[in-house]
Design goal:
The structure is a single chain. The protein is mainly α. The chain has 2 domains: 87-195, Serine Threonine Protein Phosphatase 5, Tetratricopeptide repeat (Alpha Horseshoe); 197-309. It has 13 helices and 2 strands, in the order H-H-H-H-H-E-E-H-H-H-H-H-H-H-H. It has helices at residues 20-36, 68-83, 93-104, 108-122, 126-139, 149-162, 164-170, 172-188, 201-212, 224-245, 247-263, 268-286, 292-303; strands spanning 143-144, 147-148. The chain has a two-stranded antiparallel sheet. A hairpin with a 2-residue loop joins strand 1 and strand 2. The longest helix is centred in the last third of the chain and has 22 residues, at 224-245. It is elongated and about 65 Å long.
Length: 309
């Protein structure tokens, strides 16, 4: 408890008075109180002694452990990002990513994911279509666990082909891109003996005929240039190989493509591409084909032009 004593309360006794002891005691009390109390205009600061904490045990924060499987998945995704930025199948990076893919893909789930993702890009981006097909050709016989890349790829191609009638009516661009993708797969993906897969011939031919058909009508499709560029490319790449298995079908395609060339307004680039493809195939069709002269004459008469072979 704090005792406050003021000067008015202090009575100083004369010298020799019997009250000296009392006065002395009062002065002592006054001195002690003034020592403990702040003066006017001064704040009383209470000082606390802060004791330092004793160091405890050192706590180590554990960083998350990244498993090898997760590292491989991240690497595979980065590889996919690199692939979709390649603009040409002739780019040397295609060989590099093919080698890296074989190293990274060691599990069947990774292989299925990789094939599915690449096909998705190949079916919607025509720049990537040939890149993806070229890559598949380089790693077609890779196997992860019990899963073979070739088997997964062919199943995906089959599923897409089964949707062709719906696509041609609902999304023609996607339909033509699907046809291009299958043609590129036929051209790039080979057996272990480096032979094209014969079971792909009929689907490729069917696609080509479906692409050409609308352009033979009175009101041709507006995408005639884009479509015929793709037809030209497929015929240049694989026309002779397709002819070996289905000569009569390729004859029909050559005839109808020639009709489009003569009857439709095509860009110069499209015309040159189509002429190059037809020039490659006409000699192949004529060789050993007795009826070819008749077919050729009939087409020339129908178009009203001269078509020298």
């Amino acid at each position: 408890m704090c005792v406050v004593v003021t000067l008015k309360e202090v009575v100083v006794s004369p010298a020799g008075s019997g009250t000296n002891n009392n006065n002395t005691q009062l002065f002592q009390i006054l001195y002690l109180c003034n020592k403990k109390m702040p003066g006017r205009g001064r704040a009383f600061v209470k000082t606390e002694v802060v004791s330092l904490r004793q160091p405890g045990h050192c706590t180590t924060v554990a960083l998350p452990i990244v498993k090898d499987d997760e590292k491989d998945t991240c690497k595979l995704k980065r590889l996919l990002d690199r692939i979709i930025n390649i603009k040409s199948p002739d780019d040397l990076q295609v060989q590099e990513v093919a080698s890296e893919a074989k190293t990274l893909i060691t599990k069947d789930e990774d292989l299925r994911w990789f094939v599915d993702e690449l096909c998705s890009y190949g079916y919607k981006d025509r720049v990537l279509t040939s890149v993806v097909a070229k890559l598949f050709g380089l790693i077609a016989h890779h196997q992860a666990g019990e899963c073979k890349l070739l088997t997964v790829l062919m199943r995906r191609v089959q599923d897409e082909y089964n949707k062709r009638l719906d696509l041609v009516a609902e999304d023609r661009y996607r339909f033509v891109t699907s046809a291009l993708f299958l043609g590129e797969v036929y051209h790039n993906v080979k057996t272990e003996k480096m032979v094209s897969f014969k079971f792909l011939v009929n689907p490729v031919v069917t696609y080509l005929k479906m692409i050409i058909k609308p352009h033979l009508e009175d009101n041709p499709n507006e995408n005639v240039d884009d479509d015929m560029i793709i037809v030209s490319k497929q015929l240049l790449q694989s026309g002779i190989s397709l002819h070996d298995d289905q000569p009569s079908e390729i004859l029909t395609i050559v005839m109808t493509a020639t009709e489009v060339l003569c009857c439709r307004q095509l860009s110069q680039q499209t015309r040159l591409s189509l002429v190059a493809a037809l020039a490659e195939l006409w000699p192949c069709l004529v060789k050993g084909n007795v009826n070819m002269q008749t077919e050729h004459a009939s087409l020339a008469a129908k178009l009203g032009v001269s078509l020298p072979i």
